[in-house]
Amino acid sequence: KKEVLILAIESSCDETAAAVVRNGREVLSNVISSQIALHTLYGGVVPEIASRKHIEKINQVVEAALAEADVTLADIDAIGVTYGPGLVGALLVGVAAAKAIAYAAGKPLIGVHHIEGHIAANFIEHKELEPPFFSLVVSGGHTHLVRVKDYGQFDIIGRTRDDAAGEAFDKVARAIGLGYPGGPKIDKVAKEGNPEAISFPRAHVEDAPYDFSFSGVKSAVLNYINGCQMKGEVYSQADVAASFQKAVTDVLVANAMHAVEEYQVDKLAIAGGVASNSALREAMKTACEAKGVEFYYPSPIYCTDNAAMIGVAAYYEYLSGTRHGWDLNAVPNLKL
Ligand code: KG4
Ligand code: ZN
């Protein structure tokens, strides 16, 4: 049989998702049931509510993914599932569902690292992209600069010391009254603002040129708006958003470019929710062009959490022989 079909499940945070992927590169279906509206009421993801919602949705989402792909379980070669990192209760729902389906249908089970999935999202729309390359993974929970040596083989060369990039976007958005989730809202409002209006710090970690720190810029924004409020001044939401976004993207681009030079890289792929940020894409594209580096990024739907990317990663794990037992568990702090 020359065709490999993976049914993939993702439930690590607040999206219940299932997808069918053919031969690791072709998405036959990509179903996402988002809980964002629900969590918006609380200003962020409430883990217990996320787990309960996953339980309600998981079967429906899996059935929809199979139906949209026009396949049945019998056609599927393996079940891939995110087993970490993420919220433990949320992960457990996906893992339990995947195990049950795989066991009942007699299919192999493949646990996938969530970040490996984010990076693999780049393979969907860039059929020519193959390792080795560099990846900057920027999401709500992670900020990693990764050397992708081969499919499923990674070296993390830089990471955040405190907040993840997406986390900083979410916290700043909340502080300036934009609500949750903050990233897309800051992206939109920033288009009306001046990125040079306010000078927020660009933190570089001493002796660790590839590491990141975003708690300083976040605090600087909070201090700035508190200062305005104390003086009875009205601040420009758009200018704060644009200046904050510029401070964060400047550091992401600077560290990525530093790595590209040092490691003599010719391909850079960004991944994760923040990779859909328009200012980051623009700035990284310009920087890569100046250095003659090929720049890759997934469409926004494949940047934020989805199961198609898990299906892609599971396909390459499938080829390299990875199989998990029925004792597969959720690992909230799983290492790459
Ligand atoms: O990858 P993802 O869906 O979930 C995690 O694995 O964490 O990333 C979600 C994060 C959130 O922090 C969200 O605010 C951010 O990605 N995000 C953005 C944009 N779209 C999503 N940040 C900046 N600009 C965006 N356009
Ligand atoms: Zn994610």
From TrEMBL:
Gene3D superfamilies listed in its UniProt record: 3.30.420.40
GO molecular function: iron ion binding; tRNA N(6)-L-threonylcarbamoyladenine synthase activity
Top-level taxonomic group: Bacteria
Any single GO CC term annotated in Swiss-Prot or TrEMBL for this entry: cytoplasm
Keyword tRNA processing recorded: yes
Domain Gcp-like: 26-311
Binding site for Fe cation: H114, H118, D305
Primary localization: cytoplasm
Cofactor binding, note field: Binds 1 Fe(2+) ion per subunit.
Enzyme Commission number: 2.3.1.234
Required cofactor names: Fe(2+)
Membership in a protein family: Belongs to the KAE1 / TsaD family.
PANTHER family given in the database record: TRNA N6-ADENOSINE THREONYLCARBAMOYLTRANSFERASE (PTHR11735), TRNA N6-ADENOSINE THREONYLCARBAMOYLTRANSFERASE, MITOCHONDRIAL (PTHR11735:SF6)
Known role: Required for the formation of a threonylcarbamoyl group on adenosine at position 37 (t(6)A37) in tRNAs that read codons beginning with adenine. Is involved in the transfer of the threonylcarbamoyl moiety of threonylcarbamoyl-AMP (TC-AMP) to the N6 group of A37, together with TsaE and TsaB. TsaD likely plays a direct catalytic role in this reaction.
UniProt-recorded name of the protein: tRNA N6-adenosine threonylcarbamoyltransferase
